[in-house]
Every structure is written in C-alpha cells, then in structure tokens.
Amino acid sequence: MIRLDHVDKTYRTRRGDPVHALDDITLDVGENEFVTLVGPSGCGKSTLLKLVAGLTPATGGAISIRGQAVREPFPDVGFVFQQPVLLPWRSVFDNVLFSVEMLGLDPRQYRKQAGDLLELTGLGGFETKYPRELSGGMQQRVAICRALLPDPSLLLMDEPFGALDAMTREEMSLELLRIWEERRKTILFVTHSIPEAILLADRVVVMTPRPGRIARVLPVELPRPRTMDLEFDPRFKTASDEVRRLIFAPRMATR
Fold first, then answer.
1. Which residue in 8, 25, 36, 76 could disulfide with 201, CB within 3.0 to 4.6 Å?
2. Helix or strand or coil: residue 68?
3. What digits encode the pLDDT tens for the residues 27-86?
C-alpha cells in the first residue's frame, strides 16, 4: 500500500539554518495494515506523515502509494490531526460533509454515508450541534468521520488523541479499533504513548532521535479484537519494554 524507499527530509528554519529531519527511511506498509510510529519528540514522525500525504516534498528518496509516486496531495488519503480543526460556524453534520466539498464532490450524494458514520461513532442525535457544544472526544470523533467520509483507502493519524484526558483517550483508542475492524483501512498512526502504539498496531515502527531513522519495526503478536485487558498480558509488557529500550537507550548512552 505504502512504500518509502531511502527517504530523506531536510528543511530550513526561518533563519535559513538547515534541519535534517529524516534520514534514509525505508518502510513498506501492507494493505489494511495498522502501523504505529513512536519515538522521541522531534524525531520526524509528523513530518513522515506529511510526506506520505504529499503535503510536503521529500528531499531525497521515493514515496509511492499503490505503486503511484507521491508528488502532491494524494486523493485517496484521509488525514486526522491532533486537534479536530472543526469549523465553529458549521454543525456536526456539515463539518463531516466538508471533506467531500473540498474534493469537489456533491455533498448531497454523501448525506446518508455521513449519517451512517455519525451513528457508527456514537454521534447519532448530535448532527445539528456545533463544535462548542461537544466534548473534546466527541469533536475528535467528528474529525474521524470527516476523514472517513470520502472512503479513503489510507488513513493518516497524527497523535489524534494526544490532547484528550487518559480515560477519553482509552475510549477513543477502542473506538478506533472497532471502526478499523468494520472498515478495514490502512492506517499509519503517530503517537507518543507506547501502550497506545502496541494496543492498536499490527507493527510498531520505533524511530531514533533527529535525524529520524527507523531503529526497529516490531510485530505485535497479540490477538484481535483487542481490549484494555491486554495490557496485563505478558506479551504486552515484553513489547512495551522493548519499545522503551529502543527509545531511551540511545539517549541514556549520550549522557
């Protein structure tokens, strides 16, 4: 589904200083696979998502989706940001429809699908509400519905639950797993939470400090469907310990 072949990214600050964000990233993501990205702050996780989405160009290497080179925003991709970024003057229903409007599609043809998505995410009955009337978790559900409405094959998620409280974050993680089980999208998901990364993923990609490189790709050998009880599974702890070791060992060695 996604291929990154020796991808590099260097950008310049406002002062013109070069910053080497990503170095020699090679990764394949399979159809309908759920892959999470973890690593220290500033290691280039969000930059990597933007490269895959075609929102910013790579400095070197090649990126393709289903064999097609990514050189500009890709039409078959949904993007969910850390903040919901809803339009405050539009209702929940109209915020969901906004994604197809931006693609130049007729929103009237997507009204039923929008309603079905809101029902799927537990937002049935909130169609006429406005963002200010919703909790943070509900706003993020609207953002997920908006990304899913055009039915993209690939969903890119940049710390979508990072701003939520711990209980809502767990609830949203389980909700996303449920949606993924039903809809079977390919998902590339950035998070700072090691337990979240393991709970969600088929594979966890662990990145090094900047310039971001892939330290290791860990398969998650846990059964699906998953619940929070898996955190008590010895295999969950083993995976968590290995991810922590990969993230923190290089930083400890430099002290």
1. 36
2. strand
3. 999 999 999 999 998 899 999 999 999 999 999 999 999 999 998 887 789 999 888 889
Whose tokens are 């990304």? That residue is 147
Beta bridge partners of residue 238, listed in sequence order: none
Cα-to-chain-centroid distance, residue 149: 16
Alpha helix positions (H), the chain: 45-53, 92-102, 111-120, 136-148, 166-183, 194-200, 234-253
Beta carbons of 154 and 78 less than 8 angstroms apart: yes
225 cis-preceded (ω within 30 degrees of 0): yes
The 3-state DSSP class for residue 184 equals coil
CB atoms within 10 A of CB 254: 6
- By the 10 Å C-beta count (0-12 exposed, 13-18 middle, 19+ buried), 43 is classed as buried
Residue 149 phi/psi, 5-degree rounding, is -60, -45
pLDDT at residue 32, as a whole number: 94
Task: Give the angle 164-115-175 at the CA atoms, nearest 5°.
Answer: 35
Sign of the alpha-carbon torsion through 243, 246, 252, 254: negative
